[in-house]
Every structure is written in structure tokens, then in C-alpha cells.
């Protein structure tokens, strides 16, 4: 998940069917979080000095959020989370990154540095806010690394049907022009409602 606050962590939680990652209505994720399959929920924090420590997933916010770890004062390199979700079997890993265009410049830098490790990307945009130039710039850079893209428009529950249609067409046109593809498919959803369901 690769852009500023659009509900990335909420979408990952919905895909997993559990409220595993911390979520908020402000820019939250400040450290790369890698999710893979495991027999039980567990988390390992890897620090920039090479140390590692195991934590309970309930304490993730203390290490991966701007609130719990402001400006990454704890020196966290990344966090590995294992979870028994079928989606993560067979070596699939989901990576929650800080957003681009955040008020926290270091978050954008961290996300850009992680790009070379991405095989595919879920590019999440929001129905209630137009796609930003920062996001378009990031999309151009991400195309150098990720072989596949899935475009998702979140927060459709914030708008009525006509507004959703207008937002979708606007986003499709901007992305199509930006990356030079005629038929960009964008999936609309409400990650919050999907998680509640």
C-alpha cells in the first residue's frame, strides 16, 4: 500500500479479516511492516542497529506509528508480522508502507526506498479526495519496479452514487493520462465496511 493516508492499514486488515494493524484518521504508519503467513499472530521488530525483539501484535502501534514512535526515535528498520490468513500462504507477503505526500517527510523517503523490493503494488486512492501530484509522481517511480498494479479507490461509503461515479471517472482519467494506459481499471470499495463485515 503505497500512498498517503487513504486507508492502507484498514485495507490490509480487511484482506486479513482481522484488526491486526493499527489504524487512524491521521497519517499513522511510519515504519515498513511486512506481513507473512504464520501459525499464530506474532511480531518481530528489527532495529537499524541489527537488534531484534519479539512483541505481541497488540503492541505494534508502539513501534510502527508516528504516535507511538515519533520520527522513528526507537530506530526501527522494519517489523515482520506473521498471521494465519489463507491469503498469506504460499509465500505471499503484504507490505504496509508509510504514505507519500505525508506531512512527515521521512515517511515518504522510507516508502521510496522500499520500492525496489515490490513485485506488485496495490495503489490505493480515496474517493473523497482527488489523487495528488505526489501520488502521481510516486506511481511513475513505482512503475519502474512493480510488474503489476491493482488500482483501488477506497472510502466510497463517504459519497453518494453520483459522487462516487464522478470521483471514479476523474481518477481513471488522471491515472490513464499519467501512465499512458487507455483502460485503467479501478476497483471501488469501503475497506472499513469490508473489515466490519
Provide the descriptors you would attach to this structure in a database record.
197 residues; alpha/beta; Rossmann fold; 3-stranded parallel sheet; 29% helix
Would you give an account of this structure?
It contains six helices and eight strands, in the order αβββαββαβαβαβα. It has a single domain, classed as P-loop containing nucleotide triphosphate hydrolases (Rossmann fold), CATH 3.40.50. It is 29% helix and 22% strand. The protein is globular. Strands 3-2-4-1-5 form a five-stranded mixed sheet, covered by helices on one side. The protein has a three-stranded parallel sheet with strand order 6-7-8, covered by helices on one side. The relative contact order is 0.18. With 197 residues, the chain is an alpha/beta fold. The N terminus is likely disordered.
